[in-house]
User: Fold this.
Amino acid sequence: MKGTIFVELIKMAEEAFGEDAVDDMLDRANLENGGAFTAVGNYPCSELVKIVEAASAQSGLSGDVLQRKFGHWMLAHFVVHYPEFFADKKNAFAMLEAIDGEIHVEVRKLYPDAELPKFETERVTADHLDMTYSSPRPLVDFCHGMIEACVDQFDEKADISRCPVHADPNSTTFQIKRPS
Ligand code: HEM
Assistant:
């Protein structure tokens, strides 16, 4: 995974727990590189999982909750650093529908080694979007947080529920329903 993701996760932890606590936490996380991540590096997702587990032990919050919070943090980061992807979308559904066929396609051009998930979307009704996420990485809750933050970003409200894909713990269908 891209180093930016690690750098942002550590920034979020530092803001929540303070720099000294995060240094201790990274020491205890048994990381291959001792916690020295750079934005231009590439690191295994298993290292990200170790940091989330260490942050969970530190805070008492579950890994799922932390991943979700991190999804909000990361979406806010993308809004600031890639505003052009958001500017031409008229609402959250349009944004979510553009990730697989447009946004992550551009990300892949910029970073050919990016590890990106797959999305399939279906408009069930005008106010109900189904979005099936699949990835070899255990990041369903991170994705959930990004979708929630995307809805917030467009100043909208939506109820987001999940319907797991059997036999694949890293995949899920998000059912995103706007109040009609
Ligand atoms: C609501 C909108 C978005 C959602 C739900 C979303 C979802 C995700 C998820 C879940 C991942 C983690 C990889 C995985 O699950 O296998 C990911 C990775 C990534 N996404 Fe998106 N994304 C969104 C928008 C964006 C935007 C606007 C950008 C900006 C360019 C972006 C750039 C990236 C990058 C750089 C990675 C990391 C790839 C790597 O580490 O190798 N995404 N995205």
